[in-house]
Amino acid sequence: MRRNRTLLTLAAGAAAYPFVEARLPRLRRYDLEKNPGQVPAATWETSAWQLRILHLSDLHLWSRSHWLADWVASLTEFPEIDLVVLTGDNFADASGLEMLYRALNPLLKLPGAFVFGSNDYYSGIPKLPLHYFFPNKKPKLRNVPDLPTEKFRDFLTASGWSDLNNQVTTCTLTSPARQRRSAKKLTVAFSGTDDPHIGRDWAVRVPPTWGKADLRLALTHAPYARVLDQYAALRADLVLAGHTHGGQVCLPGFGALVNNTDLPLSYSGGMHLWQAGTVANPAPRVHKGKTYPLPNLKALASEAGISDRTPGGQTRVHISRGLGTSKFTPVRLACPPEAAIITITGRS
What we know:
The chain is of the alpha/beta class. 20% of the residues lie in helices and 24% in strands. The chain contains seven helices and 16 strands. The chain has helices at residues 2-21, 41-47, 66-73, 96-104, 149-157, 225-233, 297-303, and strands at residues 26-33, 49-56, 83-86, 112-114, 162-163, 168-175, 184-192, 215-219, 238-241, 250-251, 255-256, 270-275, 285-287, 290-292, 314-319, 338-346. A six-stranded mixed beta sheet has the order 1-16-2-3-4-5, with helices on one face. Strands 6-7-8-9-15-12 form a six-stranded mixed beta sheet. Helix 3 (66-73) packs parallel to helix 4. The radius of gyration is 21 Å and the shape is globular. It starts with a helix and ends with a strand. The model is unreliable at 37-44 (pLDDT under 50).
């Protein structure tokens, strides 16, 4: 009898754990160097700059997400953040707008940039988890957009954050004085796409400052190979994406079972070096029933004035495992929710 009770207790704990893990967010840290070999080792520390980026993605907020909204707002306790990047899927339903005000308002004092995902236009709908094992299946969406997208966009842009949905911009940011590094003004060139998962991405464009900027940053919600290949050809220093939830339910020791993109499962989350051509046949853009041809990478790079001997090009990509879940499946297993602070060190 006692043994049966023990087994029942263990079974109940195992069943409850994914719901608990989904409410245990963590903050990851990454350190990147931008072309350190260009500077003599003896002068690297004194001549370099640093920029620290807070990457947030896939909040999926709704009226019962007070705990997550408060956790995001608390990130202002980290004074070293220089730039905030938001890569989409912020809503679970329309009630999430108030939660987004609560979560992001403290961060709006910092420079920021954003792109949207499908759950910034359409609220989530229930679907079988098996749906995600068929990556070529058309995304299931509501008939019409039903979220307060424009109110949310205005909330962000009114505070000076850059809307990068199929847009480009250039900003001057300050790299604060840290350790032996002096404060420096940095030219940061931005490029972004709207959500590739529902075909809202256009062919990638870059601002005229792209080639000479201190840092080239790209934003997209869903890290599809066609988009990453374009940014690799354009030699972006870093692409920031989300969408995958890191697989959300993973097998310990194996990792993600699905990532809802055309990328290999090994690219379901974290920091990666992406080489153009990694996926042999990238999924094309499909929007409103029309299929668009893949961009010519060589022509794209040539138009932007990018040319070197690296075949195809490469870039770093950070794929956030995200902070939220669908409100219909509020679970995570071996894949806790996360935000990231990415420190980039370089030289003007």
